[in-house]
From TrEMBL:
Residues 224-393 form the DUF58 domain. InterPro entries: DUF58 (IPR002881). The keyword Transmembrane helix applies. The chain crosses the membrane at residues 29-47. Signal peptide: none annotated. It comes from the Bacteria. Residues 1-21 are annotated as: Disordered. Keywords: Membrane, Transmembrane, Transmembrane helix. The keyword Cell membrane does not apply. This is DUF58 domain-containing protein.
Length: 465
């Protein structure tokens, strides 16, 4: 089961003291000192007697400033007894706000005035830091700040960074606390977590799908039960009925132990964005939610990605089933990223056929264009020899928006005509796929999970898988 509430905590480690430098207060005082030196130099020229007296005072004040700075540096350059821990969620979901907590404890002899920051990875956005605080001896405080992941993969935190003021605030010493930590940023799995405690029918209803249960129309025997009005005559188990002296019906369920393999296009087209997420991230969200529904139905789910970025790991998973399957799938795709190359549908189909011989439902998730027609049809023909094929294509909502714009200029007219031509040729490609007995799903990116689940459920109920 997916764990979303668990947290990971950095281990206690000795504080590392860095460079001590002047604070803003000392820099400001030095600025005043320089300005006063210029004023006194001018006073000596225009008012010699008064200027001499003021000059003596200036030298006295300068000596006091220097002595104060040296004394403050001597007593404040060492920061002892300061400890820090960082507490993070054990895993993060893309685009979801999470809370991190820094715990600081002062076991030293003096009060510390601190400016607290953290070494946050670039792929995470943070709010609430840096902040200022004061720690008395033997006092412990907690500081919370928000994290919002912008990119999947491993996120590596450095040590907690603190600027500790000297007793008079003239110097600041940089101190590193805690230890480095690494957490994984997954696709948005919170939708899956919300479905775990629900039945299949409740899960479908939560996703906006309303499927009516059908009794006794599956292929796998489930149980014997009393006859109900509406049961067909072929459901009646006459032997059990004669033994119990009442009508008994057989109840069937949809076939289990089927294989569903997702072919995920990681090519450059999947980098297109609709909203905050790319098409690729929308595809991952739809893949995971529909895979979870299939796993709950007892089917095995696998993954075959192609055209992925070079730095990506994983992306290949043989069909697995059971409660652990969704976690295996999540760990396989969390650091999978779209590449900059073109998708090779035929090559991907050949690789898949070499690995998977048993008949399965192949779901190809991609962003189709009319220029893909020949290569995609060739790949579909290869796959259809042994498998049932579904092509799920993501619609670019930016094209739909062009059609909704009023034609008020020549540029609007040209853009609108180009959008209509693009959609017409794309629709022809989808029709060609349907003519080759390919199941076609054409969906907006944010609704892909609904479309995939609806298509899977329709196939399941029809007995085609």
């Amino acid at each position: 089961m997916i764990q979303t509430a668990a947290a990971t905590e950095s281990q206690t480690a000795p504080a590392q003291t860095g460079r001590t430098g002047p604070s803003q207060r000392l820099v400001k005082w030095l600025g005043y000192w320089c300005l006063s030196a210029l004023i006194i130099s001018a006073a000596r020229i225009w008012l010699p007697q008064t200027g001499e007296f003021i000059g003596n005072l200036w030298w006295t004040a300068s000596a006091l400033l220097l002595a104060s700075a040296l004394l403050d540096f001597t007593t404040g350059c060492r920061v002892t007894g300061l400890q820090g821990l960082r507490r993070l969620p054990s895993n993060l979901a893309l685009g979801v706000r999470n809370t991190a907590r820094l715990t600081l404890r002062n076991s030293g002899p003096r009060t510390l005035v601190l400016q607290v920051s953290d070494s946050i990875p670039q792929q995470l956005g943070a709010t609430g830091l840096p902040c200022s605080t004061q720690l008395d001896p033997d006092q412990e405080i907690s500081i919370e700040y928000n994290l919002v992941p912008h990119r999947r993969g491993s996120a590596s935190f450095g040590r907690i960074e603190v600027l500790a003021n000297s007793p008079w605030g003239l110097w600041q010493t940089r101190v590193w606390l805690g230890q480095e930590q690494t957490v994984k940023v997954y696709p948005n799995f919170l939708g899956i977590s919300s479905l775990q405690a629900l039945s299949t029918e409740q899960s479908l209803r939560l996703m906006g799908l309303h499927q009516q249960q059908r009794r006794g129309e599956g292929m796998d025997f489930r149980q014997l039960r009393e006859y109900r009005q509406g049961d067909s005559q072929r459901q009646v188990d006459w032997r059990a009925s004669s033994r119990l002296h009442k009508l008994i019906s057989r109840e069937y369920q949809d076939e289990r132990d089927q294989e569903i393999i997702y072919m995920l296009d990681c090519g450059r087209r999947m980098r297109a964005k609709d909203g905050d997420l790319s098409h690729f991230d929308h595809a991952l969200n739809g893949l995971l939610l529909s895979a979870y529904v299939a796993i709950k139905q007892g089917d095995a789910v696998g993954l075959h990605s192609f055209a992925a970025a070079r730095e990506s790991n994983g992306g290949q998973l043989p069909p697995v089933k059971g409660e652990s399957a969704i976690n295996l799938l999540l760990n396989n795709v969390y650091d999978l990223h779209s590449g900059t190359g073109s998708a090779d549908y035929t090559g991907a189909a050949q690789q898949l056929l070499a690995k998977h011989k048993r008949r399965a439902l192949i779901i190809l998730i991609t962003n189709l264009r009319d220029e893909d027609s020949d290569e995609l049809l060739a790949a579909v023909r290869l796959l259809s020899r042994n498998h049932l094929v579904m092509v799920a294509s993501l619609r670019e909502t930016s094209v739909d928006k062009l059609l909704q714009q009023p034609i008020q200029s020549f540029d609007n007219a040209v853009n609108g005509a180009a959008a209509r031509d693009f959609l017409r040729r794309r629709a022809q490609l989808l029709q060609h796929l349907q003519a080759h007995n390919v199941i076609v799903v054409d969906s907006r990116p944010e609704l892909l999970h609904q479309s995939l689940v609806e298509a899977y459920w329709r196939l399941k109920r029809s007995g085609r898988i």
